[in-house]
Design goal:
GO terms for molecular function: isomerase activity. Keywords: Isomerase. With about 280 residues, the protein is α/β, with parallel strands linked by helices. The protein has one domain: Divalent-metal-dependent TIM barrel enzymes (TIM Barrel). Helix content is about 40%, strand content about 15%. The protein has twelve helices and ten strands. It has an eight-stranded parallel beta barrel with strand order 1-2-3-4-5-6-7-10, surrounded by five helices. Helix 1 runs parallel beside helix 12 and helix 10 packs parallel to helix 11. The protein is globular and about 45 Å long.
Amino acid sequence: MAIKAVQQIMLGTVTGSEAKAKETLQAMVNAGYNGIELNSFMVNPTPFMVRLLTKAAGMPTGKGGNLDWAKLVKEAGLSVVSLHKDLGGIEKEFAKTVREAEKYNTTNVVITGMYRFDYRDKTQVTDLCKRLNEAGKKLKAEGINLLYHNHNYEFQKVDGRQNAYEYIISNTDPEYVGFEFDSYWPTEAGVCALDVMKMLGSRMKLYHINDRGTKLTKPVMTPILKSDSCELGYGNMNLEALCGQALSSGVEAVVLESHKNWIDKSPIKSFEASAKFLNEHIGTV
């Protein structure tokens, strides 16, 4: 059975102190989750600019960087399904990356895309593939899997034929580079997420799940609503088919990461609502 996890970025506003973090992690367990996905920049003291940028994007990191997350997740009985890192950090501080993975007892390190990067530029994307292969090979020697996490910008055409995500799949070594597939972002980009998932096959080691739809909270001026993230089963994505495909591919974990459009602006109420879908379609602990 795949682990059901929550991405730590959802929890920034409700893990600012040890007491709040314990309360939030217990709420996750009570809802049926048995895993968590950590971010390196959230388990370590976070630079002010990083906190400012993530808050501006609607996903504040909070002030939990000084907490003992290894102790907290162990006491809660949660497994760490992966650790999010940036590629440059892995390359510059390889030994530190290995130590961090060992500290949290995880065998997966995930790169969450590239920043200030042009996915339409074939030269840049080709170089990225080379870097992924090299970093993945080094991590493999340490017993750690390197996974790549997508957003929507990878679905831009890189050569007039393939989009950048297809190019990355084709030009990375399956032995050294796997994928944490996020189905929300290709859907947002107008791409069939199920087709991409089938293309990945067993290279998809983790599945990031979210739903996409609308949440009407007040009257609107026009008949056009703005689509956004929403709780699982409340949107218009075919999550049943996507979950079925993910499980048939043998994913290790299904990881919830909804954005800022939460019920009553509460990430806890949001992951509790989404847990009902996951418990039905992924299974109960």
